[in-house]
Specification:
Length: about 180
């Protein structure tokens, strides 16, 4: 009976936990970005460049041509600072997305590995034995394959059916909300 509950719980966790980790826990929030100081520095440079544009526009110049050239140079500094800031933010977002995706797959692989280990170690013992009055034909041999016990459900068959059932139910619930 413990295999019945253990495999069902592992299958349920393997179905739900990775999506919870990816969508709600956001492991990347716990990760401190090393680039946050760079982003702050770039934001300060952008503010300085914008102030410089304002100063150049307000200043008196010896000619219209000189004024236009200085304004263009100041605006180019603003554009460069904006591009660098955008690039730094994109790199930070890609890093966070990579951390979240890694946590998703690590949790999925870890829970699947635990399920496989439990299935392999207990493959010879039946999860449940069904009464002779209930016929499982033509699947009797398939459902009780490694155990050798008649009308039994084996651990691998139970793990497969639990995973399939929980994924179907979870998929229906997710599609219903969308």
């Amino acid at each position: 009976m413990t295999l019945f509950a253990l495999i069902a719980l592992l299958s349920l966790l393997n179905t739900i936990l990775p999506d919870i980790i990816r969508n709600y826990l956001k492991v990347s929030r716990l990760w401190r970005s090393r680039k946050s100081s760079d982003i702050k520095r770039l934001q300060a440079e952008l503010i300085t460049a914008r102030e410089e544009v304002d100063v150049v526009r307000e200043a008196e110049h010896s000619g219209e041509y000189v004024r236009t050239i200085k304004i263009m140079r100041a605006e180019r500094k603003v554009q460069d600072a904006e591009a660098q800031l955008k690039f730094a933010r994109n790199v930070d977002n890609v890093l966070k997305m990579g951390i979240d995706t890694t946590a998703y797959y690590v949790s999925k692989v870890l829970l699947s590995l635990i399920t496989v280990i439990v299935s392999v170690r207990n493959r010879g013992s039946p999860v449940m034995i069904i009464d002779e009055g209930i016929s499982l034909a033509p699947f009797t041999g398939l459902l009780s394959f490694p155990t050798g016990v008649a009308n039994a459900i084996s651990v691998p068959a139970w793990a497969f059916s639990c995973n399939l059932t929980f994924r179907l139910i979870y998929g229906l619930i997710k599609n219903r909300k969308a």
